[in-house]
Amino acid sequence: MPFHDGKPLAGWRVLVPRGGPWGDGVAAALRARGATPIVAPMINFAPTDDQPALEAALAKLAAGGFDWVTVTSATTVDVLASYGAVIPASTKVAAVGETTAAALVAAGYHADIVPSEDNSARGLLEEWEAATEGQKGLRVLALRSAIAKQVLSIGLARIGHHVEAVVAYRTVGVPVAAKVVDDVRAGNVHAVLVTSGSVAEQVQQQLGPIPESILVAAIGPQTQRDAAQIGLRVDVIARERSAESLIDALVEAATTRA
């Protein structure tokens, strides 16, 4: 495929599986590189099944009852903002990655730890002791989605911290338009972005099997592993767990294919 005016994704139709600000930002970045984004949200977020538990945890947080709060997604930040949650200055915040940290700052919160290498719960756990100078017995509020593996909360409890793990939201699948399904199955899409295990599951369920001609790009190694478990092929993995890195990986793959 020829490039035009230095736009490496000229002519590419790319499926963006998330809407909202994230989807809009990715769509704009793809257009800047010449691609035509197809924004088709495949997951949405619903309130937790146990709102009283979340409300109680957030009240305890506001009252200074936790030394740390861990935030593992930008969606968790949306939940905090929607509840008007207060994080006192005495409580430190651990963000699982740069995207989550940016969302915290944008919402008026702060981030004290962001993993420098692996932007994941496992990466955060690996850097925890150094970041907290080996302190033990810290009171930690671990906010998570209903389907998330409790890697962080179990790991922190194992090394001697008092962890309260609370579900902040549920992830639900969203059916995509029939035309999107038809376009993917006919190979009329050049790439599909996969941004989480829950997105991978929806891509496989609604669109699979993905034709070999379509490039499947995952936002990180954990997403690739989650995809593999449900039989979704991944061709490209972003070097960092960010939208920018995901698009860079797509551009690199497009350049190789050209």
From TrEMBL:
Gene Ontology biological process terms, A to Z: protoporphyrinogen IX biosynthetic process; uroporphyrinogen III biosynthetic process
Entry-linked InterPro entries: 4pyrrol_syn_uPrphyn_synt_sf, 4pyrrol_synth_uPrphyn_synth, UROS/Hem4
Keywords, in A-Z order: Lyase, Porphyrin biosynthesis
Pfam families reported for this sequence: HEM4
One term of GO molecular function: uroporphyrinogen-III synthase activity
Keyword Cell inner membrane: no
Function of the molecule: Catalyzes cyclization of the linear tetrapyrrole, hydroxymethylbilane, to the macrocyclic uroporphyrinogen III.
Family of the protein in this entry: Belongs to the uroporphyrinogen-III synthase family.
Protein's name in the database: Uroporphyrinogen-III synthase
